[in-house]
Specification:
This protein is mostly beta strands and about 400 residues long. The protein has a single domain (about 5-410), classed as Porin, CATH 2.40.160.10. The chain has 3 helices and 20 strands. It has helices spanning about 10-15, 110, 125-130, and strands at about 5, 25-40, 50-60, 65-75, 80-95, 95-105, 135-145, 150-155, 175-185, 195-215, 215-220, 225, 230-245, 250-265, 275-295, 315-330, 340-350, 355-365, 380-390, 405-410. The strands form 3 sheets. The chain has a 16-stranded antiparallel barrel with strand order 2-3-4-5-6-7-8-9-10-13-14-15-16-17-18-19. It has a two-stranded antiparallel ribbon with strand order 1-20. Strands 11-12 form a two-stranded antiparallel sheet. The longest helix has 6 residues, at about 125-130.
Length: about 400
């Protein structure tokens, strides 16, 4: 008979604490709240409190080879709720998984292999925010064999961020990625491994963008310091990454480059479009994090495991991190000015128990050219304090002791 299991109230309900072999979850709710206080230049945004993200959803993994997830999100940049994820993943074949629905692109380890709310920094780096395609409706093939140190993705999608339709054409976008993995860098890592590595590259090709905004530059606060030109034609993005673990240390380097075609309508109705100089963008980031206390980091896993008292504040995980990043935007165009920025960031994270965390981060930016709100200003900053409440982060890998939900129907 089905039972409701709440690990936090295990003594009262007589439910057992999640076990390593407790891999079947019929329904588990998931919820995320990120409440921010931020201070930054008045021209970029107001200093004060904001509800950065609020998510509600549920996932199900009734057997080892099926996972379904649906989430909606309210965030500070949107007027109302929107679909964040809606997909199903099947994997009854050894090492092979098929995912269909609306979900993340595999480009960039920091964007695909980590979950918001449990990363060393509250927001993505400058190049990842600029070059990552985001989410789209897609069919994805994923290969991660148990006995080989490789992982590969092949994805066919709409190429736009709408969860409802293709981007005004019948063409599809393709994404491919290949990684070499070992230890804590694998999707089935438990955290018991001392070392880990993930090194790889990916590519994204969308042949038919049509008169839409190109790749721009955005800070961690969401301020757009570089407004891109209109692009039309093919968009190509390549990306490389190296992620390493050694005990309590984690280091990540990511770099990427994009090329976007541009054109304008011909002089008369029905005339062919006139090609313009393409827009080229690129970026690189490097970060290092040290988990001073708490569990060793595992991708997409909260660093305080569910124990006999998951809501106790007795054994917090404390982490510090540093990052430098650089992005060049809109290069190679004779009719449109380029831009870019260099950033340096520090963060301190306190994972208080199995659901609550506090983060304080500081960002410094040096713009190549001033934003249109204040063209003479090249320096910027952001001080960000964030409270995170995360119930049952959805699993990106197999459910095991490190990923078992706190509250579920199983």
């Amino acid at each position: 008979m089905k039972k409701v299991s709440l690990v936090a109230l295990a003594v009262v309900t007589c439910s057992s604490v999640a076990r390593a072999d407790d891999t079947h979850v019929y329904v588990a709710p998931t919820a995320l709240m990120q409440l921010d206080f931020q201070a930054l230049p008045q021209e970029e945004a107001d200093t004060g409190f904001s509800l950065q993200r609020f998510r509600l959803g549920a996932y199900s993994q009734p057997v080892d080879w099926i996972l379904a997830l649906a989430q909606i999100q309210f965030d500070s940049s949107a007027d109302g709720p929107s679909v964040l994820d809606a997909y199903a993943r099947l994997g009854p074949w050894k090492g092979f998984r098929v995912t269909a629905g609306y979900f993340r692109s595999p480009l960039f380890v920091s964007a695909r292999n980590e979950l918001d709310g449990m990363t060393p920094f509250p927001e993505l780096s400058l190049p990842a925010k600029a070059l990552w395609p985001g989410r789209d409706l897609a069919l994805e093939l994923h290969y991660a064999p148990d006995r080989l140190p490789i992982e590969a993705f092949a994805r066919f999608g709409n190429g736009n961020t709408s969860p409802a339709m293709n981007d005004l054409n019948n063409a599809f976008a393709f994404t491919g990625r290949v990684d070499a993995t070992m230890g804590r860098g694998r999707i089935d890592a438990t955290g018991a491994e001392t070392f880990g590595l993930r090194v790889g590259a990916s590519a994204f090709v969308d042949q038919n963008t049509y008169d839409e905004a190109g790749i721009g530059g955005t800070t961690a606060a969401g301020f757009q310091f570089y407004r891109p030109p209109t692009v039309s034609g093919a968009r190509r993005v390549v990306e490389g990454h190296a992620l390493a673990y050694a005990g309590p240390m984690r280091a990540l380097v990511e770099f990427g480059e994009a090329m976007e075609d541009r054109s304008v309508p011909g002089a008369s109705l029905g005339a062919p479009r006139v090609a313009l100089d393409p827009s080229s963008s690129r970026g690189i980031s490097g970060e290092i994090a040290w988990m001073i206390t708490g569990e060793h980091r595992v991708p997409s896993v909260w660093p305080v495991r569910a124990a006999k008292s998951p809501f106790s504040f007795d054994h917090p995980a404390i982490e510090i991190a540093a990052r430098v990043d650089r992005v060049d935007l809109g290069r190679g165009m004779r009719d449109y000015a380029p831009g870019g920025a260099t950033g340096a960031s520090l963060a301190a994270n306190a994972y208080l128990n199995a659901m609550f965390a506090l983060t304080v981060a500081g960002y410094y930016y040096r713009y190549d050219t001033g934003p249109i709100e204040e063209p003479t200003r090249l320096d910027s900053y952001l001080v960000q304090a964030r409270l995170v409440i995360y119930l049952n982060p959805p699993p990106l890998g197999p459910i095991n002791l490190a990923r078992a939900p706190l509250l579920s129907l199983h």
